[in-house]
């Protein structure tokens, strides 16, 4: 009877997932019709998240909305302001100069903060004259006691951890996508952070920082269905907030596409 019950539950679950997929497929198709008509600047595509509902996607991949205390925010002093846009380069893409490692998949582990911070450290490693290599996100998940592993965290905490402890390569401490016991030992060598700064919440100053410094660890409001199915183009959503954020990402450049910045 238990086998029959499990089979029935599996069929019910499959039906639920198919219905969710169909609903998401319709949403994507409607959006892409508007994209073809020039009514939106980006297109969508179905992916591995298409059989999850909105609540499930947000629960797996987005962290709770929080902010760090002001005393935890050493500020980066930048020259550019809204009136001096000419002070920055017209476009930057650090992927073209090997400052960015390959795109990673975090899976169901809510470690966006670690991927974001580690990506910024990788870029600075190259700027310092070292070879580009993937550093260990898993080390942060397992060993940084002030973050919450796969349940979220803050890039600031990662940078502070990296000032006190070496970050080893992903080859030495590979990603598993789940929180485990810390495997770091004194025989492992790696890189450390000397200092870090916060970039002001201003697009022009952020552009200057990216151009001058390299890939920047950022936070964004990703609490929107279209974000999860983004495919190409310039993502623009009027509902996005510039003060509320729930997802860490790596900003690798900026520019214009089809006349849009």
TrEMBL record:
Keyword Hydrolase in record: yes
InterPro entries (UniProt xref): Papain-like_cys_pep_sf, Pept_cys_AS, Peptidase_C1A, Peptidase_C1A_C, Peptidase_C1A_papain-like, Prot_inhib_I29
Domain (Peptidase C1A papain C-terminal): residue spans on this chain: 88-261
UniProt-listed CDD domains: Peptidase_C1A
One of the GO biological process terms: proteolysis
UniProt entry keywords in alphabetical sequence: Disulfide bond, Hydrolase, Protease, Thiol protease, Zymogen
Domain of life of the organism encoding this protein: Eukaryota
Pfam families, per the entry: Inhibitor_I29, Peptidase_C1
SUPFAM superfamilies documented for this protein: Cysteine proteinases (SSF54001)
A GO molecular-function descriptor: cysteine-type peptidase activity
Gene3D superfamilies in UniProt: Cysteine proteinases
PANTHER family: CYSTEINE PROTEASE FAMILY C1-RELATED
Family per record: Belongs to the peptidase C1 family.
Record-given protein name: Cathepsin S
């Amino acid at each position: 009877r238990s086998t029959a019950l499990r089979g029935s539950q599996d069929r019910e679950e499959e039906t639920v997932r198919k219905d969710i997929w169909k609903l998401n497929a319709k949403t994507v198709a409607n959006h892409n019709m508007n994209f073809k008509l020039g009514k939106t600047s980006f297109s969508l595509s179905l992916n591995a998240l298409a059989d999850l509902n909105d609540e499930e996607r947000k629960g797996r991949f987005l962290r709770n909305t929080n902010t760090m205390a002001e005393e935890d925010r050493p500020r980066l002093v930048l020259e550019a302001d809204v009136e001096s846009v000419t002070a920055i380069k017209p476009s930057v893409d650090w992927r073209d100069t090997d400052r960015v490692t390959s795109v990673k998949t975090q899976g169901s582990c809510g470690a966006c903060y670690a991927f974001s911070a580690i990506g910024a450290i990788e870029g600075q490693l190259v700027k310092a004259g070292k070879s580009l290599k993937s550093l260990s996100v898993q080390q942060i998940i397992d060993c940084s006691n002030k973050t919450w592993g796969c349940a979220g965290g803050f890039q600031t905490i990662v940078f502070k951890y990296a000032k006190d402890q070496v970050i080893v390569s992903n080859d030495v401490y590979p990603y598993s996508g789940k929180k485990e016991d810390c495997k770091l030992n004194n025989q492992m060598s790696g890189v450390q952070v000397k200092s870090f700064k916060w970039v002001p919440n201003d697009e022009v100053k952020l552009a200057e920082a990216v151009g001058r410094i390299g890939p920047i660890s950022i936070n964004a409001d990703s609490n929107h269905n279209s974000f999860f199915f983004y495919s190409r183009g310039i993502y623009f959503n009027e509902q996005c907030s510039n003060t509320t954020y729930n997802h860490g990402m790596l900003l690798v450049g900026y520019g214009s596409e089809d006349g849009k910045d």
